[in-house]
C-alpha cells in the first residue's frame, strides 16, 4: 500500500511515498508547466524538412534559459541535451543529432524545465511537411488517448482507471500501448511516485488524491507494443520498426478534478499547427 504525505513536511527525496501538495506548489508547477509548453509552442514553426534535431535542441535550450528556467534533462543521468527528439519508430528518449528531418517524418519533442525548483514536463507530436494518413491517424489517436486518461483524473479514481481507458481506446483503434515506459509523479523531483501506467484495470492501483502531481504520457504504436533500447543507452524503438507516437502533460489533482499545468498558451496542443 502506498503512503501519502504532505509534501511540505518531508524532504524532496524519492522515499517511496506519494507527495500531496498545497496552493503554493500548484502555483510553482503552473509557472514551470507554462515555460515548458511555451517552449514547445516556439518550436512549431521550426519543425520543417531539412532542420536537424540538434538545431531544435539548441533553440529549446536557449528558450528555456532565456525564460529563467533550467533544462532538467541536461545532465540528468548523463543525458547531454535539453529535449528528446523521437522520430518515426523511436518511442521515446531519442537523442538530438545532426541528421535532418525529412518530409513525412513525425517527431515527438519532449522538454522538461525547472522553475523555482518545480518541474514542468511535456511533449507533443510534430508533423514534418506533409505526412501520410496513417501517421496522422496515429497522432490523433495518441492525443485522444492522453486526453481520455486526463479525464479520469479526480480524487477517488485510481491510477488503474487512467490506464484502463487509454488501453481500451487504443486497442479499439487497433493500436498497441507501450507498457515498458510510463508516466510518473513529479514536483521538486523529475521522477517520483507513483508510476502512471498507460494500461490497467478500473479501480486498481493507487487512489488519486487532491494535491498529487504527475504526468500522463502514453506511447501508442501502429504495430506491436514491444520496444528495445539501442546501444546508446537511451533511444527506445519499436521492435517491429512501425510508427509510434506520444503526447505528455504534467498535471495536479484538484478538489474536483484536474489542473493541466502544460496546456499550450498559444492553443497549439495538437496538430495541425496552423
Ligand atoms: N521527459 C522524459 C519524461 O517524460 C524524460 C527524459 S529523461 C532524459 O519523463 F534524460 F532523457 F532527458
Ligand atoms: Co515525463
Ligand atoms: Co517528458
The total number of structural domains is: 1
Number of strands: 17
> What proportion strand?
25-35%
Low-confidence stretches: none
* Sheet with most strands: 4 strands, antiparallel
Class from secondary-structure proportions: alpha+beta
The topology string of helices and strands comes to EEHHEEEEEHHEEEEEEEEEE
Bound molecules: 2-amino-4-trifluoromethylsulfanyl-butyric acid, cobalt (II) ion
Give the number of helices.
4
How would you sum up the global shape?
A: globular
Average pLDDT number = 98
User: What is the rounded Rg?
Assistant: 17 Å
- Here the CATH topology equals Creatine Amidinohydrolase
Helicity range: 10-25%
Q: What is the name of the CATH class? A: Alpha Beta
CATH architecture: Alpha-Beta Complex
Q: Distance between the terminal alpha carbons, to the nearest Å?
A: 47 Å
CATH fourth-tier homologous superfamily? Creatinase/methionine aminopeptidase superfamily
Key terms:
274 residues, alpha+beta, Creatine Amidinohydrolase, 4-stranded antiparallel sheet, 3-stranded antiparallel sheet, 4 helices, binds 2-amino-4-trifluoromethylsulfanyl-butyric acid, binds cobalt (II) ion
Task: Describe the 3D structure.
The chain has 274 residues and is an alpha+beta fold. It has one domain: Alpha-Beta Complex (Creatine Amidinohydrolase). It contains four helices and 17 strands. Strands 3, 4, 6 and 7 form a four-stranded antiparallel sheet that branches. It has a three-stranded antiparallel sheet with strand order 5-14-13, with no helix packed on it. A hairpin with a 6-residue loop joins strand 9 and strand 10. Helix 1 crosses helix 2. The radius of gyration is 17 Å and the shape is globular. The N and C termini lie far apart (47 Å). It binds 2-amino-4-trifluoromethylsulfanyl-butyric acid and cobalt (II) ion (2 copies). 2-amino-4-trifluoromethylsulfanyl-butyric acid binds next to strand 6.
Amino acid at each position: 500500500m502506498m503512503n501519502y504525505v504532505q509534501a511540505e513536511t518531508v524532504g524532496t527525496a524519492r522515499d517511496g511515498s506519494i507527495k500531496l501538495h498545497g496552493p503554493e506548489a500548484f502555483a510553482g508547477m503552473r509557472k514551470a508547466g507554462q515555460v515548458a509548453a511555451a517552449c514547445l509552442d516556439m518550436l512549431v514553426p521550426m519543425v520543417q524538412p531539412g532542420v536537424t534535431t540538434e538545431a531544435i535542441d539548441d533553440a529549446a535550450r536557449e528558450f528555456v534559459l532565456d525564460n529563467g528556467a533550467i533544462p532538467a534533462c541536461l545532465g540528468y543521468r548523463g543525458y547531454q541535451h535539453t529535449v528528446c527528439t523521437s522520430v518515426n519508430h523511436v518511442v521515446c528518449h531519442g537523442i538530438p543529432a545532426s541528421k535532418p528531418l525529412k518530409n513525412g517524418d513525425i517527431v515527438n519533442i519532449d522538454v522538461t524545465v525547472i522553475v523555482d525548483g518545480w518541474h514542468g514536463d511535456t511533449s507533443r507530436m510534430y508533423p514534418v511537411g506533409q505526412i501520410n494518413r496513417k501517421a496522422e491517424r496515429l497522432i490523433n489517436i495518441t492525443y485522444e488517448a492522453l486526453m481520455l486518461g486526463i479525464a479520469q483524473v479526480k480524487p477517488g479514481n485510481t491510477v488503474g482507471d487512467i490506464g484502463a481507458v487509454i488501453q481500451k481506446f487504443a486497442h479499439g483503434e487497433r493500436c498497441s500501448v507501450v507498457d515498458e515506459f510510463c508516466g510518473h509523479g513529479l514536483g521538486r523531483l523529475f521522477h517520483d511516485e507513483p508510476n502512471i501506467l498507460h494500461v490497467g484495470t478500473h479501480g486498481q492501483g493507487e487512489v488519486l488524491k487532491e494535491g498529487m502531481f504527475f504526468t500522463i504520457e502514453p506511447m501508442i504504436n501502429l504495430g506491436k507494443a514491444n520496444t528495445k533500447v539501442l546501444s546508446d543507452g537511451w533511444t527506445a524503438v519499436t521492435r517491429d520498426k512501425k510508427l509510434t507516437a506520444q503526447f505528455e502533460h504534467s498535471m495536479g489533482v484538484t478538489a474536483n478534478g484536474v489542473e493541466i499545468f502544460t496546456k499550450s498558451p498559444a492553443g497549439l496542443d495538437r496538430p495541425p499547427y496552423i
